[in-house]
Amino acid sequence: MSNVSPQLMQRIRQDVQSMHAYAIQDSVGMVKLDAMENPHRLPADLQKALGERLGALALNRYPDGRVNDLRAALAQHAGMPDGFDIMLGNGSDELISLLAMACDVPGASILAPLPGFVMYAMSAQLQGLAFHGVPLTADFELDEAAMLAAIAEHKPSIIYLAYPNNPTGNLWNDDTIEKIVLAQGAQGGLVVMDEAYQPFASKSYMDRITRHTHVLLMRTLSKFGLAGVRLGYMVGPKALVAEIDKVRPPYNISVLNYECALFALEHAEVFAAQAKDLREQRARLLQALAALPGVTPFPSEANMVLARVPDAARIFEGMKAHKVLVKNVSKMHPLLANCLRLTVGTAAENDQLLAALKASL
Fold this sequence. Notes:
Blueprint: H1 6-9, H2 14-17, E1 31-32, H3 44-55, H4 66-78, E2 84-89, H5 91-102, E3 109-114, H6 118-127, E4 130-135, H7 144-154, E5 158-162, H8 174-186, E6 190-194, E7 215-220, H9 222-226, E8 232-237, H10 238-245, H11 255-266, H12 268-290, E9 296-297, E10 304-308, H13 312-321, E11 324-325, E12 327-328, E13 339-343, H14 347-360
Parallel strand pairs: 1-11, 3-4, 3-5, 5-6, 6-7
Antiparallel strand pairs: 2-8, 7-8, 9-10, 10-13, 12-13
Helix pairs in contact: 4-11, 5-6, 7-8, 13-14
Enzyme class: transferase
Catalytic activity: L-histidinol phosphate + 2-oxoglutarate = 3-(imidazol-4-yl)-2-oxopropyl phosphate + L-glutamate
GO molecular function: histidinol-phosphate transaminase activity; pyridoxal phosphate binding
């Protein structure tokens, strides 16, 4: 029972009251394979060096111009083209919220394929924008005809294309993406290519971004290996980024966050080796899953594997009883019926995941 007074409850938006908060699963004592985190910790010598560096920061001051050193380092790391600029967010989630805020003109809407990342729809709702979801095909490919029809009908302000997609893990057809990008540009809308899982993918849209003036590319350091640091970044044509940057809170990146990120980029080879290990583990996991009776894994270019199982709810609980936590996505969308999303872990964690899955089948 709510103990907030009825009068006060009237001051809180009705749609917010009927929402469910983003659920974080309790993972104490579990092999945690539910949130696409990099399972590798920093090596001990780097932990010590980072601790000393963070300890020396002036925490009594607001973040300073050093944040621009990070912007420059990230631009170089990502291979940002000339004439483009970079904007930082407290995770990609903040950038998604800021985009909805910046584009909230009367009649504006956001469009994205479904199933996809939940924050695209949530940011639209919270900002009072319409959200239009277009179902993928049964094999999780973009439905070209449906996407183009939705662009023509709704004339969305923003289209999100996650590349690779979450929770399906796949990269989409290049020609289809290009048709969607051109159609959206022709009606004067934005396209945001969300490359959260870029460290694990075989290609990036960065090679093609200079062809367009209405495409933004978003990445994060979460999958790079710094999920706890909360740092997302967005690259796009200078003039466009300058407009969106106006809605960003002035000190949105803490000194601890940007110093951690700078430190990580100075040791990029450590994280590159971790990503390589996870790509190799993903291949091994896909092969092992395909050999299990009744389990259908889908191709993945991310650090997760979507797998269809005979009974997702029962197998999820069975794996949990074996102390392995994954994500049951089967109720997220009809296309995901009986699907579990498995984060790629270390070799030992993947052994435990496979053993728990076998025992639960």
